[in-house]
Amino acid sequence: MKILKSNRTGLISACLSLMLVLTACGSGTEPSNTAGSSGDEYKFKLTHITQPSHVWHKTAEKFAEELNTRSDGRMTVEIYAAGQLGPEKDMVQQLETGALDFGIITNGYMSTRLESLNAWFMPFVFDNLEEATKARTTEPAKEMLKELDKQGLVGMDFMFAGNRHILMKQSNVLTPEDAKGKKVRILGSPAIQDFWTALGAGPTPMPLPEVYTSLQTGVIDGIDIDLDALATEKYYENAKYLTLSNHMTFPAVVVMSKASQSKLSAEDQTLVNEAMKAAVDWGVQEAVARESKNLEELKKMGIEIKEVSDRSAFSQVKEDIQKKYAEKDPLIKSFLETTKK
Ligand code: BEZ
């Protein structure tokens, strides 16, 4: 984050700040990490791993717009999309130090660092994406965001990509038996891995950029994916059997660097929080709207689309995984209780 002390509310506060700094330096004391004043100008950096066409990027753009308007142009946001700054592990490290200010980080990666986030990957909790997005404001979800404090992050919100479905090269997956022995690409996360293992499949963690070629060459038999990624990355070109399973949802955690936040005045922290909330409220609605638009588009692609009509076929796996994770973390237990229908 670049902080420009010159501001439009007047030179006086800048001079006062300068005098304070000079006084502190003169007395041999380093200026303490004081929060900035409300007229300061900021250039923030935000990062995420998806393409510019993806709903997470659009949400980031909306945030930049909201922040710029609400701060009368004092605050701007540079967006680094599509993993330009490296893998999520590196992004989080830079967020911890304050080299980056904001991140939209997959819950998949963050669940490897924070147990409670596995709650979002409990199988067959939500029938559709809209239902999943409502869990964003539940108490357990808010508690999970607070837990990110231990990682040097301010958990601001949850954003969504879509619910997960199954795309295969050979046939649809309507029962656990259909998945047996199949090599299925997943995003590496403990609960996702456990789910596919329990189905008898061979879960294969793989980053998104490798998926297209791996499907094409047959390195994998299929993928666990959301419709937005499936449509934007054109995976249907190499696999034609789509099962609408809604077996999990797929959120991202929207975070701010604690180091960056501590440099803002209380008023500016509120301004940033409100701008992010407005952006994510918009993004969540956009993600839900895209779910049906993407499905309509995919129907035109000549692929075989089937729905898991009998979810009870998966009930043993669902119960086993939910029990295992509820025992691991009290927040997962209360998330499951809160979202139970
Ligand atoms: C994935 O790796 O499956 C993924 C990551 C970010 C957004 C959507 C999907």
How would you describe what is shown here?
The protein has 341 residues and is α/β, with parallel strands linked by helices. It has a domain at 42-160 and 251-293: D-Maltodextrin-Binding Protein, domain 2, CATH 3.40.190. Helices cover 44% and strands 21% of the residues. It is built from 14 helices and ten strands. The protein has helices spanning 11-26, 55-70, 88-97, 107-110, 129-134, 139-147, 176-179, 190-198, 211-217, 227-232, 258-261, 266-299, 315-328, 330-339, and strands at 2-4, 41-48, 75-80, 102-106, 153-168, 183-186, 202-205, 222-226, 241-257, 304-307. Strands 1, 2, 3, 4, 5, 6, 7, 8, 9 and 10 form a ten-stranded mixed beta sheet that branches. α2 packs antiparallel against α12 and α6 (139-147) packs antiparallel against α14 (330-339). It is globular. The structure holds benzoic acid.
Oligomer: single chain
Give a quick account of the main beta sheet: strands, pairing sense, barrel closure.
10 strands, mixed
* Number of DSSP E strands: 10
**Range of strand content:** 15-25%
The fourth-level CATH homologous superfamily of the domain at 42-160 and 251-293 is: Bacterial extracellular solute-binding protein, family 7
Instruction: Provide the residue-averaged pLDDT.
Output: 91
The class by helix and strand makeup works out as alpha/beta
CATH overall fold name of the domain at 42-160 and 251-293: D-Maltodextrin-Binding Protein, domain 2
Instruction: Give the N-terminus to C-terminus distance in angstroms.
Output: 44 Å
Unique ligands:
benzoic acid
Q: Over the alpha carbons, how many angstroms does the gyration radius reach?
A: 22 Å
Low-confidence stretches at least 5 residues in length (pLDDT < 50)? 7-33
State the helicity in percent bands.
40-55%
Shape: globular
CATH class of the domain at 42-160 and 251-293: Alpha Beta
Spell out the helices and strands N to C. Answer: EHEHEHEHHHEHEHEHEHEHHEHH
Number of helices: 14
